[in-house]
Amino acid sequence: MRYAKFYVVLFTLAQFVFVGCQPSSSYVTRNEKYANVKFKDKTVIISPVPLDVITVENKDDVEDDFDTDHRTPEAIVQDSLYRRIVPYVRASLWGAALSTKGLAFYMFQTLHDSAAFIKVSLKTKKDEKDTLVDFFVPRKHVFAPQVPNVVVIINRITVGRDFSGRSVSVPHYVPGPTISTPGGTFSGGGMWMGGGGGGASQYLGGVVQFIMWDYDANEPVTYAITDVSETFSLGMTTKTWQSFFRRVGKTLFENSPFEWFGARN
Q1: The model scores a pTM over 0.70
Q2: Which class would CATH give 8-161+204-259?
Q3: Residue 107's pLDDT is what?
């Protein structure tokens, strides 16, 4: 692989006008040029997540839920995330061809390979503020000879229990009023408050930074630093991870020009 000079492409609001979309507590920025565009007959590729941008806070859960897999938790998440996202997205998009042909995971171990990635600095919402954030996009030759029209790549993902920071209401029992009668004193019927009954829900959550890039126009389509979470109450299992990975896949596409109709779990 011939090493090319590393360069930075800086997009400012003076160059492009973007529309900010805010699903739940997430921020997704969409290039206004694509506001009324529907992608049809486009080839899109989901790039494998580079290993060095994956952070697993709950390593014990990975080891318990994938107990027959003896790789590092990060390697397990890298592989499982990709294998779950690709078929789910393929079954959920209208009028687009999702390609995975010719991808080799060894080519996606680090974003800091200037021969394989360009760095793009973009303004996005982070902690309620407009912040200049670096995103990395694979160079076209990484996918040669079949270069897609559009690429989607996760630049950072951090996962853990309750990572989304959302408050969890732990259920507690509130006794009823004390009632006095000639026959004695007793308590009226109480009730469970909060948490939805006798058990508290937990979250498998994470923060995902991603970018969708149009190779034909050579500019961003959407990009974000966003949170994703999956609720569970009876203990985390591989199904919890699978549902979480599907949510990540949906997040990458649902606010884009691609038509998303969803797929059964």
Answers
A1: yes
A2: alpha beta
A3: 66
